[in-house]
Amino acid sequence: MTLTVTDYLDVISSWCFWSEPTWAELKRRYDGRIQFQWKIALMDPTGLPTSREQEQWFYRRSGMMMRSPFMLNTDWYDASLPEWLAPNCVAEAAKDFGLTDDRVRLALARAALREGKNIADWHIVAETGAEAAGIKVDKLLDRAKSPAIEKRIRASTAEFRALQITQRPAFVIDSEIGDRAIFSGVVKLEPLAATLDSMLDDAAAYAAHKAHFGDPPAK
Prior knowledge:
Elements: E1 3-9, H1 14-29, E2 35-40, H2 52-65, H3 85-94, H4 103-113, H5 122-133, H6 137-144, H7 147-162, E3 170-175, E4 180-184, H8 189-213
Parallel strand pairs: 1-2
Antiparallel strand pairs: 1-3, 3-4
């Protein structure tokens, strides 16, 4: 039985940041039973604020919704940028050094959203990512700025758009029996866990049936 959960995210998205406790708990709860992976889905101007004041308003709203004891930091924000390549490329590049977990992108998100660091600066981003990854800054930066990495995150962004949804994070759950569930912008644990439990149960039923009856007749 194979279930895969793909988390489509943008590293600097505040709503993706708020979803991280749910993501961590899902990985803990279903360890060994479900495959988890994340992919970059770049935000474009339609999903970005147009001013620092607007960003602060969004942060207050999401912070209240999540009952957060702290407010996110907007010092990193630059209204002139149509997208945030540096942090997303650095997070993606870390995968090529064996860092397929969450540590690098989480370090980058914290650097921006909690500490307000200028993550439009490739060197600052690379330093933050390299420290979290335990690799050399120059190697990570060179890889992050390579055409291959940008091509990869634009391809995963195109995958996200092909789903015809708009909200990040987007959790796409696929099973080997062909079932699919998509949660766009949902960050609470309960609906995701309930869906995973249901899909695992259905997959187990298929496996039991196959053990008793084998594959379907050819005709």
